[in-house]
Automatic annotation (TrEMBL):
InterPro entries: Epimerase_deHydtase, NAD(P)-bd_dom_sf, NAD(P)_dehydrat-like. Keywords: Oxidoreductase. The keyword Oxidoreductase applies. This is NAD-dependent epimerase/dehydratase family protein. Residues 5-245 form the NAD-dependent epimerase/dehydratase domain. Pfam families: Epimerase (PF01370).
């Protein structure tokens, strides 16, 4: 299956790679950006022609531009969602646009007669708010947004996916809706505009993390998560209808594991990568003077391992090992001049 697909949030890290792969596979792409002033910049990164890649101005919080963007499309890949640079004072700054953006995309897709709808959710909607002893997660798990310490971004992704599923069930049960749930996305970068997860590798390389906290995350490569979205777009309807697919590769990675991969493979370019561990009390002390570090407190010692066995079995997806993603990410950050070594 190919045709014309609408990809929301075309300036995003995952969306950009997805668009590049879609164009290479013969899809025509409509994509949205908040301002068309970025069209020339993004077109240079994404490729395509004026016929195969078209830009539209549309925002998660307004109806303007959505109908035009979806006109003539056969499928939707809804990837746009707000991500904070810091914890917002009001959680609704994230929750409202994430939820309303997903519902807006669904409404306009349904009005345009589009049946295939792939939504980028997140492992954040799966692996949080559970009892401390739980460390393994799959698609049947849902984040408990009422649990203490659940961050606004995590709430926003959970609420948006649940709202989307409820809307489809009530208004368009015939729609072939599914959700892709990535973990921390690494891999090569096209520019200095990339996902927040890339900052983990950036900060390890530039020495701004003086010691290694006892926290971690699961990893997936941006090239593989784009491929997973496309497999969901192209699969038979019965295969993806109502499904969730976790996008994760390999075992859970501690910061220490990522640092070790960098030190063992990059030689002098990894000279600033820390090798000593930060005690938990040091993280708590840091959080008192550095607000972003507060997000680490609930992760100290936690393991949130996610299985992608379902995506591999149903869609034939095969992700690369996390070490490759970590190193390709680091090398591209150095090559693009984002990190000076």
């Amino acid at each position: 299956m190919t045709g014309t697909v609408f990809v929301s949030g075309g300036s995003g890290y995952i969306a950009g790679e997805t668009i590049r792969q879609l164009l290479a596979r013969g899809w025509a792409v409509h994509t949205s950006v908040r301002s068309l002033s970025r069209e020339a910049e993004l077109r240079a990164q994404l490729g395509g022609t004026a016929e195969s890649l078209k830009f539209f101005a549309a925002d998660l919080t307004s109806d303007h531009g959505w109908a035009e963007a979806m006109a003539g499309c056969d499928a939707v890949c809804h990837m746009a969602s707000p991500f904070p640079s810091a914890v917002p004072k009001d959680e609704n700054e994230l929750i409202v646009p994430a939820r309303e953006g997903a519902l807006r995309a669904l409404r306009f897709a349904h009005a345009a007669g589009i049946r295939r709808f792939v939504m980028t959710s997140s492992a954040a909607a799966i692996a949080y708010g559970h009892p401390p002893g739980k460390s393994q997660y799959d698609e049947s798990d849902w984040t408990n947004i009422d649990a203490p310490g659940v961050q606004p971004y995590i709430k926003s992704k959970t609420i948006a996916e649940r709202a989307a599923r409820d809307w489809v069930a009530a208004n368009a049960p015939e729609m072939d809706y599914c959700a892709v749930c990535p973990v921390a996305v690494l891999g090569p970068v096209a520019s200095g505009d990339f996902a927040a997860s890339i900052e983990i590798v950036e900060r390890l390389l530039n020495g701004s993390i003086p010691a290694i906290p006892n926290v971690g995350f699961s990893v997936v490569d941006v090239r593989d998560i784009a491929d997973l979205h496309i497999r969901a777009l192209e699969a038979p309807a019965a295969t993806i209808h109502g499904e969730r697919f976790i996008g994760s590769s390999g075992p859970f990675q501690k910061f220490a594991d990522v640092a070790r991969v960098l030190r063992d493979n990059l030689g002098p370019q990894a000279r600033k990568v820390p090798s000593r561990n930060m005690p938990n009390w040091g993280v708590r002390l840091l959080a008192m003077v550095m607000p972003p570090a507060r997000q680490l407190l609930g992760e100290l010692g936690r393991v949130r391992a996610t299985s992608s066995a379902h995506a591999q079995a149903v869609l034939g997806w095969s992700p690369r090992p996390p070490e490759e993603s970590i190193l390709d990410c680091a090398r591209s950050l150095i090559e693009k001049g984002v990190v000076k070594v």
